[in-house]
């Protein structure tokens, strides 16, 4: 059964980075987005960055959503987000 998107509905890629092991917020986002008719690609928790990029290239979503709760060393969170922005220039993060 092929899913056809209604005009105005978008593709979302949802994931949690390595070592992020909480899913409730992401699951709620998944539910809300699907109820609104959006196409959601849900990768779940603790996704290695290289795997994320492989899926991103195939899916080419308009939006990429994640949640950070664990503390990050120094400026590594900003570096991670900047890397995502460079590697996913066609998406809103």
Can you describe this structure in just a few lines?
The protein is α/β, with parallel strands linked by helices and 93 residues long. The protein has helices spanning 24-35, 49-59, 76-87; strands at residues 11-17, 39-47, 63-65.
Q: How are the secondary structure elements laid out?
A:
Layout lengths: L10 E7 L6 H12 L3 E9 L1 H11 L3 E3 L10 H12 L6
Parallel strand pairs: 1-2, 1-3
Structure, described:
The protein has three helices and three strands. By secondary structure, the chain is an alpha/beta fold. Strands 2-1-3 form a three-stranded parallel sheet, sandwiched between helices.
Distance between termini?
A: 29 Å
How many strand elements? 3
Structural class: alpha/beta
Strand fraction equals: 15-25%
Count of DSSP-assigned helices: 3
> Roughly what percent helix?
25-40%
> What profile does the largest beta sheet have?
3 strands, parallel
Shape: globular
Q: Indicate the mean pLDDT.
A: 90
Order of helices and strands: EHEHEH
- Mind telling me the C-alpha Rg? 14 Å
Which strand order spans the largest sheet, edge to edge or round the barrel?
A: 2-1-3
Uncertain segments are: none
Keywords:
single chain, 93 residues, alpha/beta, 3 helices
């Amino acid at each position: 059964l092929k899913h056809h998107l209604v005009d105005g509905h978008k593709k979302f890629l949802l994931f949690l980075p390595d070592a992020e092991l909480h899913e409730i917020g992401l699951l709620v986002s998944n539910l809300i987005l699907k109820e609104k008719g959006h196409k959601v690609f849900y990768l779940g928790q603790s996704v290695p960055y290289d795997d994320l990029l492989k899926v991103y290239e195939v899916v080419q979503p308009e939006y990429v959503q994640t949640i950070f709760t664990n503390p990050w060393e120094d400026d590594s969170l900003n570096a991670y987000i900047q890397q995502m922005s460079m590697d996913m220039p066609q998406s809103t993060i």
